[in-house]
UniProtKB/TrEMBL annotation:
Keywords: Hydrolase, Metalloprotease, Protease, Zinc. This is Insulinase family protein. GO terms for molecular function: metal ion binding; metallopeptidase activity. The keyword Calcium does not apply. The keyword Zinc applies. It comes from candidate division WOR-3 bacterium. Belongs to the peptidase M16 family. Residues 39-175 form the Peptidase M16 N-terminal domain. It holds the Pfam family Peptidase_M16. Residues 193-369 form the Peptidase M16 C-terminal domain. GO terms for biological process: proteolysis.
Length: 449
C-alpha cells in the first residue's frame, strides 16, 4: 500500500507530503517535488490575501573573498526582467496588475523573497514567482543600475557611526573568514560584478533542491498543490551545494576595539561567541532566556543601570546562526560610566551563576516574555511567512515549530550551564565608540582605530 501511494505521488511530481498538521495554531501541509523543492503551505488569516515566499540557503556564509557582496546584489537582480517579462517596464506593469507588494532580504545565512497579493490573483502570482526564480536574464543595463544602487547602500551604511562600529566588532570576532559575515560585501567586488557571476550564483544555489517555497494565507491546499506542480515542476534540479565550512576560530584572548566617531553618546559593546544552531540546540533556547532575564525590569541589573541613570538604554541579544552565533551586550551611556556599567554587567552574570539567585519565578517571567515576543514577531501573515523561511534556511522547519515547547523545558541549571559554557571567563570583543572630546578625557590610554 505504501509503495503504491509513493508511486502515485511521484507520478504527480511529489515525493512526500504531510497533511492535517498544525503549526502555531495554523493548519499546514508540506510536500516535496521530485526536483527537490520543499513546499510549505499554511492557512492563515481571514483576509483574502496570500504571501508567496522563496527561501534560499544562500547569503554571506557562502561567500568567498572573490564574490563577497554578490549574494546581496543577486537579491536586487531578482526583481528584474525574466524570460517572460523581459523588460523592467513589463515586470513593473505586472507587479501593478496583480497588486503585488514585494521585498527581498539577504542575511548571513538566508536569502528570502516574497510577493503578497490578493488571493484572487494567487495563480498569476505563482506563475510570476516561478519566472522570477527560474528564468532571470540579468540584463546588463539593469545590472549596471543595481550595482550603483548597492554601492549607494554601501556608502549610506558606512556613513552611519553605529554601522561602522558594528562592522569593526564583527571583523574582530571573525577576522579570518570575515567575508562569510559580511552581507553588505566588498565595494570593489560589487563595482565589478558581471552577468556571469550572477548566473554562477543562480546555478549553484538557486536550485529547487536548495530552496523552499512557502505559501501563507487564504489558500486551498489542493488548488495550491496544483499550482505548485504546474509552475515549479519545470525548475531543474542541480548539484546540492556543500555547506561544510572551516569553523570560525574562537578567540584566544579578549580583544579591544576603540573608535572615535561623530556621536552624541558613548556606546559599549561586549560580544561573545554563542551556541550555533544545529550543534547544541538545547543551548540556543537557554541563551534566548538568559538574554531576556537580563532585560527584565524586575532584575537588579535593570535597576542598577537604568533606574540609577548609568545608561540611556541597554540590551543583551543573541542572534541564532549555524556558522558563528554571537551574544552581545550593548549599552548607550555617558563615557564616564563605561567601567561601572561593564563591572555591573559581569557581576550580574556571576550572580546568576550563584545557586539561589535566579528563581523559578523570574525564569517563568522570561519565558512568558519570550513567548509574547515570538507571537508578536509572526503576527502578520508576511512576518509569519518570513519566519518560516528564515528557520527553514538556518535549521529546519521543526526548530520553528517546536521552539516554544523546547523553551518551556529550560530550567535554572540550563541557564547556568550556558553562562559557564559561553560567557563566564570566556574571551570577548570589547568595543567602545565615543566622541573626540570624551576620548581625550576618559579614554586617553585607548588606541584609536
Amino acid at each position: 500500500m505504501k509503495k503504491i501511494l509513493l508511486l502515485s505521488l511521484m507520478m504527480l511530481g511529489i515525493i512526500y507530503g504531510l497533511f492535517g498538521a498544525v503549526i502555531l495554531d495554523r493548519e499546514y501541509k508540506t510536500v516535496k517535488l521530485d526536483n527537490g523543492l520543499e513546499v510549505i503551505m499554511i492557512k492563515a488569516g481571514s483576509e483574502p490575501i496570500v504571501t508567496i515566499e522563496i527561501a534560499v540557503r544562500n547569503g554571506a556564509y557562502t561567500q568567498t573573498p572573490k564574490n563577497c557582496g554578490l549574494s546581496h546584489l543577486y537579491e536586487h537582480m531578482f526583481f528584474k526582467g525574466n524570460k517572460k517579462w523581459t523588460s523592467q517596464e513589463d515586470y513593473a506593469d505586472r507587479i501593478r496588475e496583480l497588486g503585488i507588494v514585494y521585498n527581498g532580504m539577504t542575511s548571513n545565512e538566508s536569502v528570502r523573497y516574497f510577493f503578497t497579493l490578493p488571493s484572487r490573483n494567487f495563480e498569476q502570482g505563482m506563475e510570476f514567482m516561478a519566472y522570477a526564480i527560474i528564468d532571470p536574464i540579468f540584463d546588463s543595463t539593469e545590472l549596471a543600475k543595481e550595482r550603483n544602487v548597492v554601492l549607494n547602500e554601501f556608502n549610506r551604511d558606512f556613513s552611519e557611526p553605529s554601522y561602522i562600529f558594528y562592522q569593526m566588532n564583527e571583523e574582530a570576532m571573525f577576522e579570518k573568514y570575515f567575508y562569510r559575515k559580511n552581507a553588505i560585501g566588498d565595494k570593489s567586488v560589487i563595482a565589478n560584478a558581471t552577468r556571469e557571476q550572477m548566473f554562477e550564483i543562480k546555478n549553484k544555489y538557486y536550485i529547487p533542491n536548495n530552496s523552499a517555497l512557502v505559501i501563507v494565507g487564504d489558500i486551498d491546499f489542493a488548488k495550491t498543490e496544483k499550482f505548485v506542480k504546474k509552475y515549479f515542476s519545470r525548475w531543474e534540479k542541480g548539484n546540492a551545494p556543500s555547506f561544510v565550512f572551516e569553523e570560525h576560530p574562537y578567540l584566544e584572548k579578549t580583544k579591544n576595539i576603540f573608535t572615535e566617531q561623530n556621536v552624541s553618546m558613548t556606546e559599549l559593546m561586549i560580544t561573545f561567541r554563542g551556541p550555533d544552531v544545529g550543534k547544541k540546540n538545547e543551548d540556543t533556547y537557554a541563551m534566548d532566556l538568559l538574554c531576556e532575564i537580563m532585560k527584565l525590569k524586575s532584575q537588579n541589573i535593570y535597576k542598577q543601570l537604568v533606574e540609577n541613570g548609568l545608561v540611556y538604554s541597554y540590551y543583551l541579544g543573541y542572534y541564532t546562526e549555524q556558522d558563528g552565533a554571537t551574544v552581545t551586550f550593548d549599552a548607550a551611556l555617558s563615557a564616564e560610566n563605561t567601567n561601572k556599567v561593564k563591572d555591573i554587567f559581569f557581576k550580574e552574570l556571576n550572580n546568576i551563576n550563584t545557586d539561589g539567585y535566579l528563581t523559578e519565578e523570574i525564569l517563568t517571567q522570561a519565558k512568558e516574555k519570550v513567548e509574547m515576543n515570538f507571537y508578536q514577531d509572526i503576527e502578520s501573515s508576511v512576518d509569519f511567512t518570513l519566519g518560516v523561511g528564515f528557520w527553514w534556511c538556518i535549521s529546519e522547519l521543526d526548530y520553528f515549530e517546536t521552539y516554544l515547547d523546547n523553551l518551556k523545558k529550560v530550567n535554572v541549571s540550563d541557564i547556568q550551564r550556558v553562562l559557564r559554557n559561553y560567557l563566564l571567563d570566556k574571551p570577548y570583543i570589547e568595543g567602545i565608540m565615543t566622541d573626540k572630546e570624551s576620548a581625550k578625557k576618559y579614554f586617553a590610554n585607548k588606541e584609536v582605530k
